[in-house]
Amino acid sequence: MADITRRFGLRHLRSAPTAHIRHLRAGKVVHDGPGVSFWYRSLSAALSEVPVDDRELAMSFHARTADFQDVSTQATVTYRISDPVTAAARIDFSIDPDTGAWRGAPLEQLATLLTETAQQHALDVLARTPLAAALVDGVAAVRERIAAGLAAEPRLPATGIEVVAVRVVAIRPEAEVERALRTPARELIQQEADRATYERRAVAVERERAIAENELASQIELARREEELVDQRGTNSRREAETKAAADGVRTEAEAARKVRIAKAEAEAAREVGAARAQAQAAWLEVHGRTDPAVLHALAASRVAENLPRIESLTLSPDVLTGLLAKLGSSAGAGER
C-alpha cells in the first residue's frame, strides 16, 4: 500500500518499488511507473496502485474421478501482473487519495479468475482418470494440464496477468476411501513384518539348536576326556602301586638281609661270648677246685655279706656264741690236719 502524507492541504504519495502507480488528472496521465513519489491534490487526482511482484495463490477444490470417487486437490499458482497499465484498465486497482487503500478487492478478483480457470482444467483431467491412477500419476498430469490451460487462457494476457509456475501439492481421496486403500498395503507390510519375524525366530531357533549341539558336543568331549583322565589316573595309580610294591619288596629284602646279618653277628657274638664265659667259668671252677674249702667258705660269706643289708649291731646269746666257737674250733682243727 502506498504511503500518503498531508502537508498544507496537499497530499504526498510515496510508493514501493514493487507497486506500479498510475496518476490521472482530468483524464490525462500525470505520473505512471513503479516506485514513484509526487505531490497531488486529492480532489482532482485519480490514483491506481498495481502490484508487480510475484504472488502465491493457494487453492483447494474437490473433484470426482472416472470411478466416481471424490478427491481433494491442493495446488499453488505463482503469478504476476506483467502489464500493469492493462490490468489497471481491466480491473479496479484504484486507491483512496487520502488513505491509499484500495477501493475494491482486485486481488480477490484475480484469485477467483485463476482458481476457477485452474479448477476447470483439473476437473477435466480427473474426470477421465480412475482413482488409483489419479493417486499415482495424477499430481504430474494435473500440474501439466493446469499449466497448459492457464498458458492458453486468452483472458489472462488480456488482463495483463502472467503465470510464472504451477505446483500441485497433493491429491487425496476421502478419509474412508484412503483408509480402505491403505489396508492392502498395510496388510502387505504386516505380512512382510510377520515374515521377517518368523525368519528371525527361525534363525534364532537354528542358532539355539547350533548352540545346544555345540554344548552337547562339548559335554561329550569333556566326558571323553574325563574318561581318559580316569583311565590315566588308574594307570598312574597302578604304576605307583607297582613301583611302591617293588620298592617295599626291595626294602623288605634289604631289611631281612640286614636282620639276618645282625642275627648271624649276634649269634656269632653270643657263641664267642658263651665260649669265653665257658672258658672263664671253667677257669673259675678250676681255680676254685684247687682252693681250700675254708677259703671258699670265707669268700662265700664275704659275698653273702656284700649282698646282705647293713647290720648296725648284733647280739648273740652265750649259747649261740659257745656253739659257734665250738664249730670254729673244730673247723680249725680239721684244717690243721
Quick summary:
This protein is of the alpha+beta class. It has helices at residues 84-90, 106-126, 131-152, 155-159, 175-289, 293-307, 318-336, and strands spanning 3-7, 10-14, 19-25, 28-34, 37-40, 45-51, 55-64, 70-81, 161-173.
Any overview of this molecule?
With 337 residues, the chain is an alpha+beta fold. The chain has 7 helices and 9 strands. The protein has helices at 84-90, 106-126, 131-152, 155-159, 175-289, 293-307, 318-336, and strands spanning 3-7, 10-14, 19-25, 28-34, 37-40, 45-51, 55-64, 70-81, 161-173. A 3-stranded antiparallel β-sheet has the order 1-2-5, with no helix packed on it. It has a 3-stranded antiparallel β-sheet with strand order 4-3-6, covered by helices on one side. A 3-stranded antiparallel β-sheet has the order 7-8-9. α2 packs across α3. It is rod-shaped. The protein starts with a strand and ends with a helix. The mean pLDDT is 84.
What value does the Rg take, in angstroms? 75 Å
Instruction: List low-pLDDT spans.
Output: none
Structural class: alpha+beta
Percent helix, as a range, is 55-70%
Topology (SSEs and partners):
Elements: E1 3-7, E2 10-14, E3 19-25, E4 28-34, E5 37-40, E6 45-51, E7 55-64, E8 70-81, H1 84-90, H2 106-126, H3 131-152, H4 155-159, E9 161-173, H5 175-289, H6 293-307, H7 318-336
Antiparallel strand pairs: 1-2, 2-5, 3-4, 3-6, 7-8, 8-9
Helix pairs in contact: 2-3
